[in-house]
Amino acid sequence: MKVKIAESAGFCFGVDRAVNIVKELISRGESVSTLGPIIHNKQVVDELEKDGVTVVNEPNEAQSGRTLVIRSHGVGADVYSLLESKGVKYVDATCPFVAKIHKIVREQSEKGAAVIIAGDKDHPEVVGIMGFCITEPYTVKTAEELEKLVSDNPELMDKSVCLVAQTTFDTEEWKKILKISKKLCTNSIFFGTICNATSQRQIDAYELARSSDVMIVIGGRHSSNTNKLYSICSRSCERTHLIETAAELEHIYFREDDNIGITAGASTPASIIKEVLDRMSEKSGEVMENAAEQNFEEMLEESLKSVNTNDKVFGVVERIEPNAVYVSLEGRKQTGYVPVDELSSDPAAKPEDIVKVGDKLELLIMRTNDQEGTIMCSKKRVDATKGWDVFENALENNEILTGVVTEVVKGGVIVVSNAIRVFVPASQATASRRDPIDALLQTEVEFRLLEIDKRRRRAVGSIRSVLKERADAAKEAFWSSVEVGKKYTGVVKSLTSYGAFVDIGGVDGMVHISELSWSRIKHPSEVVNVGDTVEVYVKGIDTEKGNISLGYKKDEDNPWNKFTAAYKVGDVVDVTIDGLSTFGAFAVIVPGVKGLIHISQIANHRVEKPQDELKVGETVKVKITEINNESKRVSLSIRAVLNDEAADDAAVEE
Asked: Which domain holds residue 603?
């Protein structure tokens, strides 16, 4: 027998993070409950139960004095509201990839989009996603179900539709769903929300199953991603088995010449995988064959060589996986690995974006496992140690630093800079308190440090300080160069009933409502919206009050200019009656230009009231009899047209 394990198997980032959060709380002496099993793995749940961790199924069951952990699957928005209203102390271990889906469906449904979720509607992750939808969400498991959904709800064919997938959804089925949705839903938006680790795990499992006689899938039977792995492997390998523990191997028949593949779900801990591998090694004899000729006692002694925690060590990257980076440590026989959460201070960072195979890393030893012969290391802590030196110098010299906003938290945002997490209060995060801090997520920002406490690893910064300095400099530059008639490209900042305020480079100018359009409008929103980029020019300057009046209308768009360029006195045109009065009728010649048909010019006979001859909305033929450029008035005559026609008819008769 030959045994091969899939390259990506076992704990994913989100699950590993959730379990570690629970263990960290336990280590601090806290009493912990989880909202539902922390992961779909009975063995892990049983192990945590021995440490006093209890499971509650509903938020109302949360007990005072215990910290409630929201598992990686996440929960709906209403659960957070309920916990906060009841004053329940909780820690949110929702996987960042799941939280990203929550943000997507909330934003899209707020815009009125119909949300379609590819996944199991009863799965906790999908239930949580649905709990962030403003509009009524739909769920489908297959492309066929999507076809039926659209058939039963034909309005989806033209409606704005947002499609997302459960993070552990089958990638092949997702491709089929996208293909169908592109045909049926013309206004659909797709978001690739299947976790990269899940996608890679499924690909690796499928490839391994194709070359295996027997496929072993390790994981909880209630685990969605484990069951999907089982389904994927079963397509290529008939002898596919799902097991939870190594003991179940005793019920599986193996032949001597079998090629055996092994993979594991995202909620399967390394200890169970190792136990299965050890049992399979006993069956296949592979370990004994690979033991080489080296004295076993010497190998064991060397591999369990004492290593002090917090020692620094250099390692070369050998392998990159979604949940960890594996390194060859200089002078060590043990396997070194860096968990994702010890690789970078950014929880959403991907390992492959941070390091590459062959990179030499300076690491800090965090923990050794003599039993498994592994060393857990940290890159981010070494980087942070260097970062504190940078921070101390920056604080002393009031220097500007750069970083990326990785999280929006209660009361502010987290900026990662020099591998250190910096808290920026909401009051210091934007130029104005009116500006939303959510827009900062995953953007690069400049900031200054307000305070640091290296011992407590605490840093507080201000983005607003830098923005204000930049704004002051921009204002100074603006006022030194501004002049009437100068053109600017600006951004609409706000609208009022009387005009639009436009940022033209650190200074806001106002475009009066009368300057927005050549035609009469009731509100500026009929022409521009907040966030629009517009071309404006300076009409007036009040340096004492700091006010700038702006123009937006362009001469080339002036309806009067367009009219005079196209028409002259004597032209006969079709016009639309727009209004009636006692002395005549007003008619639209071109949009924005009207002419008067005097009551005496409505017909070639006496007219008592214009209403007797004309109706609003009626189209009539008139002759332009006068154009007054100074007063911008136009005189029109139906009578002149009638007289011309009568004259023509008389000429024909003669």
From this structure: 563-653
Measuring CA to CA, which residue among 214, 169, 160, 208 is closest to residue 187? 160
The angle formed by the CA atoms of residues 202, 204 and 210, to the nearest 5 degrees, is 100
CB neighbour class for 582 (10 Å; exposed up to 12, middle 13-18, buried from 19): exposed
Position 299 confidence tier, pLDDT thresholds 50, 70, 90 = very low
Within 186-223, residue ranges assigned H as helices are: 196-210
Span 436-495, pLDDT tens digits: 898 899 999 999 999 998 777 789 999 999 998 888 888 888 888 888 889 889 999 889
Instruction: Please give the C-alpha separations between residue 414 and each of 102, 424, 446, 450, in angstroms, as whole numbers.
Output: 19, 6, 13, 14
Instruction: Assess whether 47 carries a catalytic annotation.
Output: no
Which are the contacts of 106, defined by CB distance < 8 A and separation ≥ 6? 77, 132, 133, 134
pLDDT of residue 616: 94
Q: Are 344 and 352 in contact (CB under 8 A)?
A: no
Take residue 109 and report the two structure tokens written for it.
């449904």
Per the residue annotation, which of 7, 47, 49, 125 is the catalytic one?
Answer: 125
- The count of other CB atoms within 10 Å of the CB of residue 385 is 15
In a domain, 585, yes or no: yes
Three-class SS state of 281:
helix
CATH number at residue 397: 2.40.50.140
Show the tokens assigned to 314. 């250099």
Exposed, middle or buried: residue 261 (CB in 10 Å: 0-12, 13-18, 19+)? buried
Question: Do residues 501 and 461 both lie within one domain?
Answer: no
Q: What is the DSSP pairing of strand 584-590 with strand 593-598?
A: antiparallel
State the chain's maximal CA–CA distance in angstroms: 131
